[in-house]
Amino acid sequence: MLALSFPAAAFGTNCYVLAPGPGEECLVVDPGIGVEDTLRSLLEEHRLRPAAVLLTHGHLDHVYSVTPVCGGDTAAYIHTDDRYRLADPVASIDPGTLAMMEAQFGQRATWREPERVVEIEDRGRLELAGLSLEVLHAPGHTEGSAMFALDVVPDGLPAEEGLDRTVVSGDVLFAGSIGRTDLAGGSDAAMRRSLREVVLPLPDSTLVLTGHGPATTMRRERATNPYLRGLDA
């Protein structure tokens, strides 16, 4: 599997491109703020064609560029419980943050909902762009936060890591941390449940591609992440 990533222009949100290999269809995950030019260059360099856009949740920093990336033909996939957020995620940003973002980019923030949206459910199986993914609903950061699990890892990983699967975790799990739960729709109790019932059962051999910051592994997080201590899978 080919896995490419780069940070968005704001909030350090990781945008991922997943494909069976160069010259194939691909999946774009979480196209955030200001990603369009970099994403276009990556797609051209590796001769990739977007088949779908996957959204780990509906916060603005993860979905802002979804409509221009999708165009009119490519569907955006999001969990049912976060579908409502695509109506206007700009409206949920506090005025101070919105003004700062507009000052940085020199233009007013606007939003247009994607033409094609597919609602996904927990444990659903997606067969897209030659890849097979399982949807893992993990609320807490938002009601519809979801992770995407694949039984394959990117090419070129060190063999000694012993990794055999990948999870795109969004803002559920970070290296050494987790997503915040104090925003609208967040829940500390739901997050603890998701960590205990969805995250901890993941095998140590899982590569975790996070929504912000560096990639990690379940082996590393199980041993070092303070938010996973004291939870029983």
UniProtKB/TrEMBL annotation:
SMART domains, sorted: Lactamase_B (SM00849)
Domain Metallo-beta-lactamase: 12-212
Keywords, comma-separated and alphabetical: Hydrolase, Metal-binding, Zinc
Pfam families: Lactamase_B (PF00753)
Listed GO MF terms: hydrolase activity; metal ion binding
Listed cofactors: Zn(2+)
InterPro entries membership: MBL_Glyoxalase_II, Metallo-B-lactamas, RibonucZ/Hydroxyglut_hydro
UniProt cross-references to SUPFAM superfamilies, sorted A to Z: Metallo-hydrolase/oxidoreductase
CDD domains for this protein: metallo-hydrolase-like_MBL-fold (cd06262)
Record protein name field: Glyoxylase-like metal-dependent hydrolase (Beta-lactamase superfamily II)
Naturally occurring in which organism (per UniProt): Phycicoccus duodecadis
Lineage, uppermost ranks: Bacteria, Bacillati, Actinomycetota, Actinomycetes, Micrococcales
